[in-house]
């Protein structure tokens, strides 16, 4: 019998700081050409979606196969909108090593960590206000992880659900951050030094004219076909666009909408920045955008690390 590791044990082992270190290393490996990443399986079903991701990282002892789900109507029934699990295999023998019943936790925290790694390379060192579009799980993890790499004092947030937005702001205040519930997306953009978009929107929420010099945008909601949070012109307005994987973002990230509109974008990969092969932000007046769709090497990295931590 292979070990089955439950969510509570994984939550105890995988802290945001640990996750950021692991995901940073994974992006570095990708930038150095040490990853093998097959295409994602995206399956849309009535009321929801499934994603299957995997990857091999040279030097990492395991390969993870992750199945994640998103059923956004679950919230009305008191159920989580996202769930999933990861199967872990020995990279040398191919034998099963463990089953991680994380219920989507590892995906959530690795996504937050990826946002923090993007901010390290793309956001200004000195920021005061983080703008958040959304009030779900990623609205929390992105802020939680960002605080580790960039200190800030205020969150301004908007969500289509006023009730969930107020609850989110209450949580941020309890965590020691001044939180303001905005009435429009434009209001959030006007205040934000770093803007995080974390919704399942299928139409653009952020307009290019709302982006200001010095602003950094991390977009994490567009992770399957049809989703979109940024106008394609946001990517044209940006001085620098970074993606977690060119092919993947061109297929279903924010990048795809710019390409479909005939806009010429030349993004760089975040791994190239982390590996020192490309340059991130070079001055405080640049507008930067990170288009993050979630790549399989992140799942292999966080699952293998979690298993090793728990086993040790």
Mean pLDDT: 95
CA(first)-CA(last) distance: 19 Å
Q: What proportion of the residues is helical, as a percent range? A: 25-40%
CATH homologous superfamily caption of the largest domain: NAD(P)-binding Rossmann-like Domain
Examine the secondary-structure arrangement and name the CATH architecture of the largest domain: 3-Layer(aba) Sandwich
What is the number of E strands? 17
In words, what does this structure look like?
With 312 residues, the chain is α/β, with parallel strands linked by helices. The chain has 2 domains: 4-106 and 297-311, ornithine cyclodeaminase, domain 1 (2-Layer Sandwich); 115-295, NAD(P)-binding Rossmann-like Domain (Rossmann fold). It is built from 11 helices and 17 strands. The protein has helices at residues 7-13, 16-31, 105-122, 137-149, 162-174, 185-191, 232-237, 246-252, 254-260, 270-274, 296-311; strands at 4-6, 35-36, 41-45, 48-57, 62-70, 82-90, 96-101, 129-133, 154-158, 178-181, 194-197, 202-206, 216-219, 228-230, 240-243, 268-269, 288-291. Helix 3 (105-122) packs across helix 4 (137-149). The protein is globular and about 55 Å long. The mean pLDDT is 95.
List keywords for this structure.
single chain; 312 residues; alpha/beta; ornithine cyclodeaminase, domain 1; Rossmann fold; 2 domains; eight-stranded parallel beta sheet; seven-stranded mixed beta sheet; 11 helices
